[in-house]
Design goal:
This protein is of the alpha/beta class and about 230 residues long. Helices cover about 40% and strands about 15% of the residues. The two termini are about 20 Å apart.
Length: about 230
């Protein structure tokens, strides 16, 4: 996503916001190269809901779901996975872990009136959606908190495979994607976000989170840029 393209956050920023970030020098772009890994964050039914439903109808069934925006992102992820796998790029999925009900209520439940336990099908909630189901070489990491790095073996896996760059997609943009990107940056990884393949239940949250990540922690890239990096690598 170049500076000349219209961005999702344009309508949320004031003229002063734009001037301040430009003057501060944020938002420099870096080149994405290999070796890298593709990190698919929480593209599970808990966060997508079932296909074909409006957002509110989806939330009625799965309270954390993002509805149509999630399924639009699924199509993008589905399109890039074959090329990524063909080039031997590691694909890492994260899902929610099945916490004890008491722990769920004491953590997420203190901020959310409805948790994944309240989904119409709690057993299905943490399943990766069928269109992007895992391949035989893919890795699945279960997590209990927003960041894919928190109390998981993700960092050890990346170190063991000599990976210093991450292309991140999935949801939600303002929650688990952002937390993972910030932690990845903090651990010294060069992070890119596949913007077309991220999703959120809130338009403003999605847009401003993309803006913040682009300015400070990551580079927003298109599918074409990802595929070019994969092919040239």
């Amino acid at each position: 996503m170049t500076a000349q393209e219209r961005t999702p956050w344009d309508r949320f920023l004031t003229t002063e916001d734009v001037a301040v970030f430009a003057a501060s020098g944020y938002g420099q772009r870096r080149e994405l190269t290999t070796p890298m890994a593709l990190l698919v964050v929480d593209v599970t039914y808990a966060f997508t809901g079932d296909p074909g439903l409006s957002l509110l109808a989806s939330i009625e069934r799965y309270p954390n779901s993002c509805g149509p925006a999630a399924w639009a992102a699924v199509e993008v992820i589905q399109a890039v996975l074959p090329a990524v796998r063909e080039r031997g790029i590691p694909v890492i999925y994260t899902t929610g872990a099945s916490e004890h009900d008491w722990l769920m209520r004491r953590s997420w439940g203190e901020k959310h009136a409805r948790t994944p336990i309240d989904a119409v099908d709690p057993a299905k909630a943490n399943e990766i959606v069928e269109p992007i189901r895992t391949g035989p070489q893919d890795v699945v990491i279960a997590k209990t908190k927003p960041s894919a790095f928190f109390d998981t073996p993700l960092r050890q896996y990346l170190v063991g495979h000599g990976i210093r760059q991450l292309a991140v997609c999935g949801g939600s943009t303002s929650g688990c994607v952002r937390a993972t990107v910030v932690d990845g940056f903090s651990h010294g990884y060069r992070v890119a976000v596949l913007a077309e393949a991220t999703f959120d239940r809130g338009e403003a949250s999605h847009a401003i989170s993309l803006f913040d990540m682009q300015q400070k922690y990551a580079d927003l890239i298109s599918t074409d840029e990802l595929l070019a990096a994969v092919t040239e690598g």
